[in-house]
Amino acid sequence: MKQTNKLVAAGIVVLLVGCAGPNPYGNSTENYGESEANQTLRVTNGTIIDLTPVTIDSEGNLIGKGAGALIGGLGASTIGSGTGSDVAAVAGAVIGGIIGNKAEEAYNKANGVQITVELPNGRVQAIVQEVNENVHFRRGDHVRIIRTPSGKSRVMQ
């Protein structure tokens, strides 16, 4: 019976993976959130006048810090007994939290670029977005600025 369940589960996984299929328009170079799909996007043309490399930090959450503190506290609580064990658990939690925070900071950084674009009416706009290794912008490139109804913008070739 267990073997039959495994075969059924494997078959379902194969079917679900096959449903996604390749994109008939080619490989994707941009990601959109579900809330951005099926929305009218405003398009503005312009010319790149400046490119500045930046680092994009995530807005940070407490997962790395919390996980590090929990693991450090639990691991250190096995040291000693009584009050010594309690002190070791607190010290382990603090050290684990610091290590977890540093690991999360390193993991949640992305290479970005600030793209400054001059519009046909002479206005200048700057947009920061994550670097896409498949797209290489240069000064003088004619680009499109795509704006979602929520106000998010991205520059595309």
Q: Key features?
A:
157 residues; OB fold (Dihydrolipoamide Acetyltransferase, E2P); five-stranded antiparallel β-sheet; 27% strand; elongated
Sum this structure up briefly.
37% of the residues lie in helices and 27% in strands. It has helices spanning 2-20, 63-76, 83-107, and strands spanning 42-57, 109-118, 124-130, 142-147, 153-156. The longest helix is centred in the middle third of the chain and has 25 residues, at 83-107.
What would you note in describing this structure?
The chain is an alpha+beta fold and 157 residues long. The chain has 2 domains: 30-58 and 110-156, RNA polymerase II/Efflux pump adaptor protein, barrel-sandwich hybrid domain (OB fold (Dihydrolipoamide Acetyltransferase, E2P)); 63-107, no CATH class. It is built from 3 helices and 5 strands; from the N terminus they run H-E-H-H-E-E-E-E. A 5-stranded antiparallel beta sheet has the order 3-2-1-4-5. It is elongated. The termini are far apart.
